[in-house]
Write the structure tokens for this entry.
Amino acid sequence: MEKEMIKIVDVDGVEREVELVSILEGKDEKGKYLVYTKGETQKSGNKILYIAKIIVGKEGYVLRNITDDDEWMDVKKLMSEIVSN
């Protein structure tokens, strides 16, 4: 499977190319989440994944950190559904 690379701009304004892993969408359509990796691995060899909430802004899409515990639980459920299918 070919890697799909996308460009994001971090909080410091630096543009980075990252690998798109998935886009998660809640059933209630309240949240869309970008799952991506920077190609980093843990000592165990597993890839490090990053997840950010996708917000539609004036100039396109904006990524935000997930800070709400209930929202994190919803994201974890979405990820569990993918893994179990």
